[in-house]
Amino acid sequence: MLGRFFKKPEDDHGGRVPPGQTLTSRFPVLTYGPVPRYAREDVSVRVFGLAEEQTFSWQDLQGMPQTTLTYDIHCVTHWSKLDTTWTGVSVPELMTRVHLKPGATHVMIHSVGGYTTNLALSDFVRDLNLLAHEFGNTPGALAPLETEHGGPMRLVVPHLYFWKSAKWLSGLEFISADAPGFWERNGYHMRGDPFKDERYSD
Ligand SMILES: Nc1nc2c(c(=O)[nH]1)N[C@H]1C(S)=C(S)[C@@H](COP(=O)(O)O)O[C@H]1N2
Ligand SMILES: [Mo]
């Protein structure tokens, strides 16, 4: 009797599916505005604000150690996808080449086309976060990241809702206080932890 009021353990795959999420094996595309199309040679990730100004090209990023990781992603529109595989440069690896200035506490992530999203440095500099350029639905099947999904290069921040994973990465602006990015100005939560159901700001 009581059993049907409780989730069966397999429903959340051992705690991997956050509250209010449904699994999908598809890979939905969620983009606000037009999809920018540009070549790898045009990739340019500008570091600015409270950091020594510099720009990373596609070649620069390809020359850094590459990491392949498999993990789950969670969109605020209630889909989650288990075991997605990504290859790219880990954020800690990139940050060994970035020289922060005193007072930097947060980073505003910028995309080609003007999309932005904010992260605390403690959420940005994490081993699982990647500047990703390859994606695989299964670990063996990596392919260049499709344009619709942020190719040639996107950020992936798997521990927060997927709107923090900016596609078509173009800039890292280090700042001294938290500030809202695009969706955060439009009602989304400043941090967005799926396991805390942090979808909207109060
Ligand atoms: N530049 C940019 N990045 C973005 C978005 C966007 O509209 N523009 N949408 C965000 C949202 S809300 C989600 S859920 C994911 C979707 O990524 P996908 O289209 O690869 O599934 O990208 C995020 N990154
Ligand atoms: Mo989203």
Give structural notes.
Helix content is 9%, strand content 31%. It is mainly beta and 202 residues long. It has a single domain (18-25, 43-196), classed as Alpha-Beta Complex (Sulfite Oxidase, Chain A, domain 2), CATH 3.90.420. A hairpin with a 4-residue loop joins strand 4 (67-74) and strand 5. The longest helix has 5 residues, at 58-62. It starts with 21 loop residues before the first strand and ends in a 17-residue tail after the last helix. Bound molecules: ligand MTE and molybdenum atom. The site of the ligand Nc1nc2c(c(=O)[nH]1)N[C@H]1C(S)=C(S)[C@@H](COP(=O)(O)O)O[C@H]1N2 has 17 residues, from loops.
Runs in which pLDDT lies below 50 for 5 or more consecutive residues are none
Could you give the count of β-strands?
Answer: 11
Number of domains: 1
Q: What is the H level of CATH, i.e. the homologous superfamily?
A: Oxidoreductase, molybdopterin-binding domain
What structural class do helix, strand and pairing data support?
A: mainly beta
Ligands and ions found = the ligand Nc1nc2c(c(=O)[nH]1)N[C@H]1C(S)=C(S)[C@@H](COP(=O)(O)O)O[C@H]1N2, molybdenum atom
> What would CATH call the class?
Alpha Beta
